[in-house]
Amino acid sequence: MSQRYFSNIYWHFTGSPEGVDWSKARCPKDITEQGPVLDNEKAAETLRLILDSSMLKATCTEKISDSLETDKFCCVTDIPFKDLPSHAPYYGKVAIGFKAEAIHSHFVPVLYIPNKNLPAVSKLVPNRQLQEMASDFLQYSGGFQEQQAMKLLAQAAHNKEEIKEIDEQEVGGFYSNFVKITDFDTDAENSYYREREWRGIGDFNFEYTSIEAVVGPEEVLPQIREKLDELNISHVNVVSWEFIENA
């Protein structure tokens, strides 16, 4: 078999840091700068909740511009089995893998694009630096500070600067739901491109027969196996994280 750069199993990791503002995360390292990944116990608990509900909940959005945001989505990745450890620093070591047929009917690959390559329009706006200076003076009411603020605002209106803003008419619509903003970089932590994300708009309700495998550290596998037994799911491959790392 030739070397593959994709997988026929689509993985959803359950250990992302809590409270991540995804609109501020434009590359993997932006995720962990907002907090640590969940510990193995919490990530395994999330996996058990997913199994109980038979659902991946759509909880994420992608902010394309100040006023343009995607609908809520859930996501999976088709990175090869051997590359799963590259996800762990940002999404933890617990994941559920789905069969390709189940994913293809609900998810599509995202379009990775740097912000600077989005269609943009130029416009003249009041000088933002002068406006910021005026706002500092406006913290005080009356007197000299207020007079200075008014002068600065007048100067800002007169000394306009050119800015480029995303052309929302060009970017908006159905396909904007599948745009992921990230720069391209040779360092993996500085670009989402290597993640091979597939995105589904809205919740993903799945059948247990759609699950191919679950992975997790050996310390939490007994809890995961117990949940699988409880739900009478006997066909799923349960793989230890240690096996993946040593394979």
List keywords for this structure.
247 residues, alpha+beta, 4-stranded mixed beta sheet, 3-stranded antiparallel beta sheet, 30% helix
Q: Can you offer a commentary on this structure?
A:
With 247 residues, the chain is of the alpha+beta class. Helices cover 30% and strands 22% of the residues. The protein contains nine helices and 13 strands. It has helices at residues 28-32, 40-53, 88-91, 100-104, 128-137, 143-158, 168-171, 221-230, 241-246, and strands at 9-13, 55-56, 73-77, 95-99, 108-109, 111-113, 120-125, 161-166, 179-181, 197-201, 204-205, 211-216, 237-240. The strands form five sheets. The protein has a four-stranded mixed beta sheet. α2 (40-53) runs parallel beside α8. The chain is elongated. 26% of the residues are buried. The model has no long low-confidence stretch (mean pLDDT 89).
Q: How much beta, percentage-wise? A: 15-25%
Number of helices: 9
Instruction: Write down how many β-strands occur, each being a DSSP E stretch of 2 or more residues.
Output: 13
Report low-confidence residues grouped into runs of 5 or more: none
Main pleated-sheet profile: 4 strands, mixed
Return Rg in Å: 23 Å
Structural class: alpha+beta
Order of helices and strands: EHHEEHEHEEEHHEHEEEEHEH
Report the principal-axis shape. Answer: elongated
What order do the strands of the largest sheet run in, or round the barrel if closed? 1-4-12-13
